[in-house]
Predict the 3D structure of the following.
Amino acid sequence: MKIDFTVNGKPHTVDVAPDTPLLWVLREHLELTGTKFGCGRALCGACTVHVDGQAVRSCAYPIEYAQASQVQTIEGLESDRIGEAVVNAWIDLDVVQCGWCQPGQCMSAAALLKANQSPDREAVDASMSGNLCRCGTYSRIRQAVDLAAKNLREGAE
Amino acid sequence: MKTVFRVVSASLVLGGGFTVLSCVAESGDPGDDAPSPNWTSVDRDTPQVGDPFATVARVLRHPRCLNCHPSGDVPKVGDDRRLHAMGVRRGDHNFGMPAMHCNACHRSANQEAAQVPGAPHWQLAPRSMGWEGLDDHDLAETLKDRSKNGDRSLEDLLHHVSEDPLVLWGWDPGVGRSPPPISHAQFVKAFRHWIDSGAASPAPGTTSY
Ligand code: FES
Ligand code: FES
């Protein structure tokens, strides 16, 4: 099946089986390996990307659903103000341990901040609880989401 | 038909709509005080007798329906009605939290490879249509209450259970999930029969499985 879509603003066409997960297409066909495979069952969040602005699990996103859509991955996250704030906060607070889960964490954090630029602790936890981190960086992730939110609010003033 | 009589201590309800489905996930929602029948061993062949609502209630109380009609804020998954994994929450629009909307994982059809169920407009029923903990009387009252059911008439409800693809998904739930104890056609017939016979609410204290 031919799929036309854009990834990080760049148009792509792939010809693959319709049930091929978006994650496979990104990593194997487009060689965008920033997005990680964790469980393949929509259970860990490592593969989170944005499709038309919504966070989705790309391991559980058959490519047929991506026809004519706009996909954003970790490689393109800094192209907008919110994504840039997230990445900068992650760097400033040295969030990353092994790093495997972090592309997904950043994509979820950006999706949260697009919807809510003043998330309280409960909102952060409820929105980020689907992203697992085996290295246990959760406390730094929380701080980084708070920092990104603060920087976004101050930047908007 | 297998009917279990038990006294239900509380009925939880608030305001608006009606959906039937199920999701993926884990256990312990405050609204869930029901025992877990063995759904795969439910007798599907015994003719319907007695209260016309009992057959309807048996289906509505099946995990395929009840899992996404929780009385709390966490959907359930599986035939054993575990709490949904990953801390999935109801969210403001019964559609999950930002970054964790239902359609972050659930598409409009079941996914065999990832084993993620899916159907059009996959989401939770509103809090007002949380059915956990309700006996047959309260369940029937809740269904009929337009302030809770999304302002639906009985005919609207019949149309919903007959046509809504999310309801129909219950009978095509994918690998590892059992369908309700009777066919969809039998369910619609039982629903019609309940309406035509006056849509009475059973006496309090009965819970049909
Ligand atoms: S790899 Fe997709 S959620 Fe785990
Ligand atoms: S940083 Fe290692 S899994 Fe999260």
In short: Residues 184-196 of chain B form the longest helix (13 residues). Residues 1-35, 41-48 of chain B have pLDDT under 50 and may be disordered. Residues 2-29+49-196 of chain B form one domain. The interface with chain A takes residues 24, 85-89, 91, 97-101, 103-105, 107-108, 111-116 of chain B (CB under 8 Å).
